[in-house]
Structures are given as C-alpha cells and as structure tokens.
Amino acid sequence: MCKRELAESAEEPKYFASVQSATSEVENENKEQQEAEHGTREMGILYPFIISGGKNTERFYFKHINDLTDYKFNIKPEYFADESNYTEVFPKRIREILSRNTDAKIYCVFDWDTIYTDETCLKRHDAFVKEFIDEINNGTVVICHSMPSIEYWFLLHFEENCTELLKDYSAVSTRLAPHIKPCFSDPTPKLKKLLKMEKYLKDSTWVKNLIDDGKLEKATKYAESNINAAKAIDDLENQSFSYVYKIFKGE
User: Fold this and answer.
1) Residue 3 located in a structural domain
2) Potential cystine with 211: which of 47, 179, 216, 230 (Cβ 3.0-4.6 Å)?
3) Composition bias, kind Basic and acidic residues: at what positions (predicted)?
4) Which of 154, 229, 159 is CA-nearest to residue 184?
C-alpha cells in the first residue's frame, strides 16, 4: 500500500479556496506558499475539507462535484493514493489541516465493509474516533462512512431506494450497474473498471449524469431518512447506509 507523507509547509495560511481540478496539488501548494510570502492572499470562505480512504472513485467524484455544482471542497490530498488504511492516515491528515485551519470542517469518507467484520480493524477505528472525539462532538470532524461502500451512496441517486443489507462491493455493484453504467460516455466496460480506473473516471460526464434531475438531492434525502428510521428502532447494523449525505447538508 502506498502511503503518501504529508507535505511540509512552514507558516502556510488557511485554505480559503476550493481545490481546482485543473491544477495539480503541487501547483496549488506552490501558489499558496507564494501568496503567504508576499502577503497577497485574498481571504474568503473557508470551504470544507474532504479526506478519503478511497483512491480514484472518491477522488474524481468530489473533484467533479466541485466543478459541476455550487458545492465546494478542499480535497486533501488532491491525489488520494491508496489510503484504505484510513485509521493510520486520517489522523495525520486531520492534524495537518487543523494545525493551519482552526475553523476547518473535515469530512472523513471511507467504506465500512472491510471494517465491521474485522475485530482488529474495529479496534483501530475505535481508537481513531477516541483520538478525535472532541472534534467529532463539536462538528469539526464528521465521520462519513458507507456500508458497504461509496457505491451504495451512488445507488441512492436512482429510483431504487434499497435499504437491505448489502454486505460487500459485489452485492451493491449488482444493484448499481444497470443504473450507473449508462451515466458513462462509454458504458461497455465492466462496472469495476468504470468506477476504479482513472481513464474512465476523469471524464466528468458520469458525475453530471449521476446528479442531474435532482438525483443528488434525492440521494441525500434517502440516506438521511433511512438512517434516522433505522436508528429509531436500533436496527442500523442490519441494513446498508451512507453518511455521505452529511457533506451535502453541511452537517
């Protein structure tokens, strides 16, 4: 697994501009450093930060959301690499962001399917939550996991509001494929390739089609209402869910 080390930047100011998909992370950081040295930064809105345990799927989804909608995020790092071991990587990201941005809001996006059945992973997750419990309680850090994965969040964009327990990627992809494959310019490859490989994901067409006609708002409504209904009867563990909706409600 590739683990990117955080770039060190002395006295770097707050991130007040959303990350632009057309600009590399290195170029953004160089620009920020130049602005800091010359005192030319124009302060404005501090956009929320997104860190993710995914690689390409989440990376391009949020980058395209930045470009296509009024939702704006700082995506750190711009290239997620493979940060599936989020319990090790996320604390570094969070500390780095908060050291420069005391007013930051940070959304932590990751999949739950490989965590909930593994006792060691659950202990690491609990330790991660414990370390940032104050930030979680005051809303600075927001846990946005999906069961089984981000693909379930995508499924909620369509008419099929599935609440049954889909335990893994295979289960959710079977339900998702007929809906999301037509969103791509070339829907012929298998879904796993479409949702994992950069050459398919970098074209924003799939996200544009995914969120058109109020489908993003629909997914947000479904995800929130499904979770609230399940929690009311203490039955969330017996169904799929996604807390990604919190990003779009600003919670």
Assistant:
1) no
2) 216
3) 1-14, 28-39
4) 154
- Is 134 strand, coil or helix? helix
The two three-digit tokens of residue 162, written as one number: 């599935």
Contact status, residue 222 vs residue 161, Cβ threshold 8 Å? yes
The residue type of 117 is: T
pLDDT of residue 84: 67
DSSP 183: G
| Range with lowest mean pLDDT among 112-116, 133-137, 220-224, 245-249 | 112-116
For residue 40, pLDDT over 60 is answered with no
Does 54 reside within a domain?
yes
> pLDDT tens, 110-167?
999 989 989 999 999 999 999 999 999 999 999 999 999 999 999 999 977 889 999 9
Query: What's the residue count for the chain?
Result: 251
Q: E-strand spans in the chain?
A: 49-52, 74-75, 106-111, 141-147, 241-242
How many distinct structural domains can be found in the chain? 1
